[in-house]
Write a structure and sequence with these properties.
The complex is a heterodimer of chains A (130) and B (212). Chain A is globular and about 50 Å long. In chain A, the strands form two sheets. Chain A has a four-stranded mixed sheet with strand order 1-2-4-3. In chain A, strands 5-6 form a two-stranded antiparallel sheet. The mean pLDDT of chain A is 82. Chain A is built from five helices and six strands. Chain B has 212 residues and is an alpha/beta fold. Classes of the chains: A alpha+beta (130), B alpha/beta (212). At the A-B interface, helix 3, strand 3 and strand 5 of A face helix 4 and helix 5 of B.
């Protein structure tokens, strides 16, 4: 069974960057797929990769990460883009969503600009190997 | 916003305190995209020696490798560019030692390689701040929309570091440079084959424009 945990942006809004990463990674480490409203900052995304690498061990093999952010779309221009940037500055980046899946559950995430596909692991095959 | 200000500030400081000989040109990208093959090609062309070993098994480069004081001449021979070439381990979000077992590696060796690879990714990220220009090496036969690619390029943009994206392995049938270009429309993307040297001379000319 695959569990998806939805995290509204308000749940991470007040947290520091380290706190946000910790919260998201802790959920992923429980073998749950995180569906976060909005996205982390670019620095936080890099920090998430770094922290993931620091915590890789026998049980935790890392994450699959994907961000769908319509506000970054090339089609968003002019006033719409300015409006979006203005609100992001004050309210955080709430547009779009971020998927963080533990590598033990999610084999890969295929992303086209407006579509996302999660390929999950065949648990039975993996456990046979052990 | 803060990232952009930081980037502009760093560029401003670099204008005054860095000489051209100090330029650090980084090779970044996902594992197995051909960063070291390209580093070897650059070093062979301009120093007459290779830089590191290459392999079909991912995460062959697990430590930062630097070749200092490479001197590159422009096509007409009028311009010269001095730089230090920094080859970095491939950036990934997951590393599973079991993937290495498929290549006939022993469990002990596979675990060791995985551990070194995780450290390599951390080091590559730490070095991002030190780069003056970056060649992002992507495998043009693979999906360019991977979040790792987007995160690396987004970070470089936030730091205001000049970027040239190369879609490597253009010699392969499955290569799709147009798809790479479509994924990063705001950047210059060129197809190359580091292995066979295809388009590499053109890439050198682009490098002159990027950091010259």
């Amino acid at each position: 069974m695959v569990t998806l945990q939805f995290i509204p942006y308000t749940e991470i809004e007040a947290l520091s960057s380290v706190g946000r990463i910790r919260k998201l990674l802790n959920i992923a480490k429980k073998n749950k797929i995180v569906l976060l409203q909005g996205r982390l900052s670019k620095d936080e995304e890099t920090e998430l990769i770094k922290t993931t690498m620091e915590e890789i061990n026998k049980e935790f093999r890392g994450i699959e990460l994907a961000v769908i952010d319509p506000s970054q779309s090339e089609t968003l221009e002019g006033f719409a883009k300015v409006k979006n940037d203005f609100f992001s500055l004050f309210l955080g980046n709430r547009s779009g969503f971020t998927v963080i899946g533990p590598a033990s559950v999610v084999k890969s995430i295929k992303k086209n600009p407006d579509k996302i596909e999660l390929l999950t692991m065949n648990k039975r095959r993996r456990s046979k190997k052990k | 916003m803060i990232d952009s200000i930081k980037g502009w500030f760093n560029s401003f400081l670099n204008m005054f305190f860095k000489t051209k000989g100090d330029i650090k040109l980084g090779l970044y990208g996902p594992p197995n995209s051909g960063k070291t093959t390209l580093a070897n090609k650059i070093c062979k062309d301009w120093l007459g020696q290779e830089m590191g070993s290459i392999s079909n098994v991912a995460h062959e480069t697990r430590e930062i490798q630097i070749k200092e004081q490479i001197s590159m001449k422009s096509k007409d021979g009028k311009k010269e560019l001095f730089f230090n070439l920094v080859d970095t381990p491939g950036i990934a979000t997951k590393i599973d030692y079991e993937d290495f077992l498929k290549f006939g590696m022993s469990e002990r060796k596979a675990k060791k390689r995985a551990k070194e690879a995780t450290k390599g990714v951390i080091d590559a990220i730490k070095w991002l701040d030190d780069m003056d220009a970056v060649l992002v090496v992507l495998d043009s036969t693979q999906d360019p929309y991977s979040q790792v690619n987007i995160t690396i390029i987004g970070n470089l943009a936030a730091r205001n570091i000049p970027v040239l994206i190369v879609g490597n392995k253009s010699d392969l049938k499955r290569s799709n440079i147009k798809k790479v270009q479509a994924a990063f429309p705001q950047y210059e993307v060129m197809g190359i084959s580091a292995k066979y040297g295809r388009n590499v001379k053109k890439m050198y000319e682009k490098l002159f424009k990027l950091v010259g």
